[in-house]
Structures are given as C-alpha cells and as structure tokens.
Write a structure and sequence with these properties.
Layout: H1 2-41, H2 49-75, H3 77-80, E1 84-86, E2 93-95, E3 97-106, E4 109-120, E5 125-127, H4 129-134, H5 143-153, H6 158-168, H7 175-185, H8 190-193, H9 197-208, E6 216-228, E7 253-266, E8 269-279, H10 282-294, E9 304-309, H11 313-322, E10 327-330, H12 332-347, H13 351-366, H14 370-378, H15 385-399, H16 407-412, H17 420-434, H18 443-458, H19 461-476
Parallel strand pairs: 6-9, 9-10
Antiparallel strand pairs: 1-2, 3-4, 4-5, 6-7, 7-8
Helix pairs in contact: 1-2, 5-6, 5-7, 6-7, 7-18, 10-11, 12-13, 12-15, 13-14, 14-15, 17-18
Bound molecules: zinc ion (ZN).
Length: 482
C-alpha cells in the first residue's frame, strides 16, 4: 500500500516537473520570437552589439518575470487551487472565494498571480495563503526592489536613485516611494545597527592574538553640522494635498549630528567596530551611548578603552558617566588650536616670532610637558587686550583638562592623540550624503539616512533589511505557514 502511495506521489511530482519545464520552454520560445521580430525590423545594416544587448535588455523582464511565475506554479501549485482553509482566528473551516489577480513588481520584472481568497465573516478577516507563503510585501514593489532603491538612496539624491534604478534593473520606483521606503526602513535604534556582542567580542579576541597587551578600543565622539529645515518649513499650499516646504518663509539652519564611533587600533590600522550618528540633543546622544554600555557591546575587561574628542562639555559628561575607567584624551589638534590663537594674537605682527613660540610650545605639549605649557602661558606679557583674552581662554581651557593632555603617556601606550578617525567617519557617513548644494533636511529624514548609512558601514545593512521585512510580515500575517 505504502509503495502505491509513494509511486502516485512520485508520479504527480514528475508531472508537475514536466509541466514546469514545458511552460518555461514555451515562455522562452515566445520570447525568442519577439526578439527575432525586433531584429528583422532593425534594417539592412545589421544590428551592432549595442543594438542586440539593448533589445535583450528591453525584453528581458518578460522572460524572467514569466520564469518566476512558472517556479511559483511548480512549487506552490496546491496554493493556486486551494479550496479550503482554516480561519487563523477562530479555527472555523472556510471555503475559498473566487481567485483574485495581483501583479507584483520585482527586480526581474512583473509577476502576475491569480490566487484563491479566504474570508471569515465571524472574524471580519480575509487572507491569501499564497501571498503569505511567498512573504509578499504589501506594496506592489517587492522587498528586492525596495532594498535596491534604498541602497541607491543611501548614496545619492532620491531623484537620481529613481532614475538609476529604472535604468539598471527591470523595476521602477518614484523618488516619493523611495523616500517612503527609506523612512520606513530607517526608523532604527542604535542597537539595531550594531553588530552583536558576540561578533564584536570575536573581532576583539582576534586583535589580541599574539599580543602582550590588551587591544586598544577607541571611543571617538564628535558633532557635525547638518543643513536642516526648521519644522516651521512644513506647511500646506492651497489646493495641494501634499505638504511642501515654503522656501521663502524659512531659513536653513545647521543642526548638530552627534555621533560616536568605536574602533580597534591594530598597529597603524583602524578596525571599524560600529558607528552611530543622529541629529539630536545631548540627552538623545547619551541615551544611545547608554544602550551600547548596557548591552555590553564593549567587553571592557578585555580591552584598553580610551575616549577621544574635542573639549565639548557634553561629550565628557557622558564619557565620565558611562565609561568612567576609559582613558580620556583631548584631541591634540583641537587643543593646539588654542595655542595657535595665542600665537596669532600675541605675535601677529611678527610671523617669525609667532611660529618660534608656537613650535616650542607645541613641542612641550606633544612631549607631555603640559605644566610647562601652562607656566609659559602664565608668564607671557600680553601684547594687547586681544592677546590677553586669547591667553586667558587657552589657560582656562587647559586648566580643566590637564588629565587629558598627557600626550607623551598617551603615545607611549599606543593610544591615538588625534580624533581624525571620527572626523572621517562623519565625512563618509554624514557629509557625503547630506551636504549637497540646495539640500536641507528635516531631522526625521536625515536621521533615517544616517541610521541606514551607519548600518552600511557597520556591516549590518542586510540584517536591518531582514528585520524590517520580518516585522512587516509579522504585522500583516494571519496564517501560520507550516
Ligand atoms: Zn474566523
């Protein structure tokens, strides 16, 4: 008996396979006919390679979309003819309603589906088992199209992304839809764009192999200006449904994107661990850094942690609160700018003396003789009121930060003394995409782009896409697929 059932199943399976092949071959034949017809029309001179590839590209979607349809029929045949289902809400048996058509857009062309619909009157709930089995997106643009559009929009303006997507694939999305998708996908918290604690631990352990000292992990913090639209720029124009910024009534502002980057120093190489940048206030910054701390992403007992930044008080407030044992390093170049200002004000009319004083003072600073630098500043006879003010500013600045400026000790320990690595992080995460002529951003929009670009450089973008897809599917799912 068992053998008979098995061979029947095998027979049906073979029939399905044959039908699939026949359908695919028929689609290919039709496709070749269309292509041949095009070639005959192309005139006596004969097509160039460019003509040939253009013709294939133009017709490609018809074939590849059709192949996907054939695959679906092959794999999900039973869903296409399903007559009964069980309501996922009340477990009542349901009869299928007449099949309905839906066309979805993918990177390889349109895919047409005609599939049964089930509706439970008691639960007022309808569903398509095939859509759920295939994990279809609610929009007609499927996940592959959405992700491709999003990736392009992370590198270039939305309009340009829309054009390139259409030119390079068999899918199209308007710049408005790309914007919507980026906004949906970019609603992220810091931990969602960070690698896992286990992953980070693994990278840190690798850096420690064969070393006498624990590896150095640097926490670099900085703020960068993002050209921003004030909320008052929002408004509705009469007769228009969509809100548009009223250009004349508002003035662009620069808002601070505050960011941190954790990286490993491995000899002279920087190994990225993760970055997080958002436009927001210092409380939001602190909350994000606290999440990183609480999640234990940095195994503090296995590394030598240092924090490097300029003198902004909000930065050091959070470093001290959350990573009290981290070695604090004041960015050397930022610190030296105060001494540049003194040289300029004190010896502005004598460039040779100015540079002589500056070189000597910077050499002291670099060699860790900060008390000597302070002493030198104190005994300077100020040449003018302006010079007195510059000296005073430098002294006040240094006095509060003497514990952060022992550059000789920092260098001896192998720690960095310049925050170039965070500035370059800001350049490639924020500036490259956000600072374009004429581009002014609402914070919610710049933050979505920033979060996704952080994911890109943290190596977690695919994971972010996956989570987004899972969340959306769970929200719309009614049937459990076995
Ligand atoms: Zn029901």
């Amino acid at each position: 008996m068992d053998t008979a059932i098995l061979s029947l199943a095998a027979y049906q399976e073979r029939r399905l396979g044959e039908r699939f092949r026949a359908r695919a071959h028929a689609a290919l034949d039709e496709w070749l006919d269309r292509l041949e017809a095009q070639m005959t029309e192309s005139g006596s001179a004969g097509p160039t390679l460019m003509d040939l590839t253009a013709a294939v590209l133009q017709e490609r979607a018809g074939l590849t979309g059709g192949l996907v349809e054939a695959f679906i029929e092959r794999r999900y045949g039973s869903y296409l003819v399903q007559e009964e289902a069980v309501c996922p809400g009340c477990r009542r048996p349901l009869k299928g309603r007449p099949a309905r058509a839906r066309t979805v857009e993918t990177l390889v062309g349109r895919v047409a589906l005609v599939r049964p619909y089930f509706y439970c009157g008691a639960c007022a709930q309808g569903f398509y088992p095939l859509d759920e089995a295939l994990g279809l997106a609610a929009r007609s643009k499927q996940w592959d199209v959405q992700q491709a559009g999003c990736k392009l929009a992370l590198e270039m303006p939305h309009e340009r992304a829309a054009t390139l997507l259409q030119e390079l694939t068999d899918a199209a999305m308007s710049d408005c839809v790309i914007h919507e998708v980026v906004q949906q996908m970019g609603q992220l918290e810091v931990l969602q764009v960070c690698p896992s604690a286990a992953d980070l631990q693994e990278r840190i352990a690798q850096a420690a192999v064969g070393r006498k000292w624990k590896p150095i992990v640097v926490l670099a913090i900085d703020a960068a200006a993002v050209p921003s639209r004030p909320e008052t720029a929002r408004g509705t124009r009469p007769g228009r449904k969509h809100r548009r910024a009223r250009r004349r009534r508002w003035q662009g502002e620069y808002h601070e994107a505050k960011g941190f980057r954790f990286y490993l120093v491995d000899d002279d190489r920087i190994v990225q661990l993760f970055s997080w940048h958002q436009v927001g206030d210092e409380e939001a910054f602190g909350a994000a850094l606290r999440q990183v701390k609480d999640a234990g992403l940095i195994p503090e007992d296995q590394v030598r942690l240092c924090a490097i930044a300029d003198g902004a008080p909000w930065i050091w407030k959070w470093v001290t609160a959350l990573f009290p044992s981290a070695r604090q390093i004041l960015d050397y170049y930022h610190c030296s700018s105060y001494l540049h200002a003194v040289a300029e004000a004190q010896y502005g009319d004598d460039p040779a003396r100015a540079s002589h004083w500056l070189e000597a003072t910077l050499a002291r600073l670099f060699c860790g003789e900060s008390p000597g630098v302070v002493w030198g500043l104190q005994r300077l006879q100020s040449a003018s009121e302006e010079a007195a003010a510059a000296i005073d500013r430098a002294l006040t600045y240094l006095a509060k930060r003497l514990h952060q400026v022992d550059y000789a000790a920092h260098r001896k320990g192998g720690y960095p003394i310049g925050s170039g690595a965070i500035e370059s992080a800001h350049r490639f995460i924020a500036h490259v995409r956000l600072k374009r002529s004429g581009a002014w951003w609402y914070s919610e929009n710049s933050n979505a782009i920033l979060a996704l670009r952080c994911a890109l450089y943290n190596g977690t973008l695919e994971q972010v896409f996956q989570h987004h897809r899972d969340r959306q599917l769970t929200a719309t799912r009614t049937v459990t697929i076995s």
